[in-house]
Request: fold
Amino acid sequence: MDAEPKRIGFLSFGHWQPVPGSQVRTARDALVQSVELAVAAEEIGLDGAFVRVHHFARQLASPFPLLAAMAARTRRVELGTGVVDMRYENPLYMAEEAAATDLLADGRLQLGISRGSPETALRGSEAFGYVPSAGTTDADLARQKTELFLAAVSGRTVVEADPGMTGGASGRLAVQPQSPGLRERIWWGSGTRATAEWTARQGMNLMSSTLLVEDTGVPFDELQAEQIARYRAAWAEAGWERTPRVSVSRSVIPVTTDLDRRYFGERSGEDQVGLLEGVRARFGKSYVGEPDQLAEELAKDVAVREADTLLLTVPNMLGVEYNARLLETVAREVAPAIGWARGG
Reply:
């Protein structure tokens, strides 16, 4: 299998708060500025614009109208999510929305989905009307919904036709519209090595973030690189013919001005280990410093080397101008060290 070219995009959580210093004070600000940052990323030459999805919080929540708006203002960049929490979704309606968005984007949608991360709401997906059946978990519910969603975007029939509305014809129907190739652009956000192997068996691309909900005592990038290796081995064992995509997320903050120093200081952090939902988890460090220092550090990050896609988490509340300058600095002075070349 041929190696995928290195791609770089941004990942925005879309926070908004009417607090001192915030350039993103309302939900409209967050949505409009997400579109504007996607336009800026394309002008810079980056490859992707991704958004996080959270519920019951002052963050981006409903991705498909936003991604469609991004598609209308851009021509080249990939547009995606990192990630949609499947616990909250109606799989068939989501399949319709995803296909429609992908058609409007001319096949640029890269849809990251998952069991999701901790939310501010207690049993929030149950408030949406989705309750795990007896003897099952939230994770089971998310995977069941994912199975139906994948079937739907693959064009499989999912419901019986009504002969009274089809001129007497019987059979089964698929959701519409369908977007060719979308099934191969579905990613699963994986937080463990075991779920990465499950992801490979489902034929989904791997999206690994800045934390893993396990810890073996090795540095985060090495643990994540092992996760990627196990994913690719499982992919090969499953016999899939295409080359899968793999992304990792990193916080990369070049410090070039006094304003940068006031916001972020000058030194990169270290991995952190803590408990997440009662499970020991390892969080990746933030990369903060002069661009040449960041280039050297990222080049040594084994998971960044192994992945074909790097998603840069941006401090979106600092506004479009600040983040566009941040992304331009990374593109010009940091990204070439990890094998990235500017897009058209």
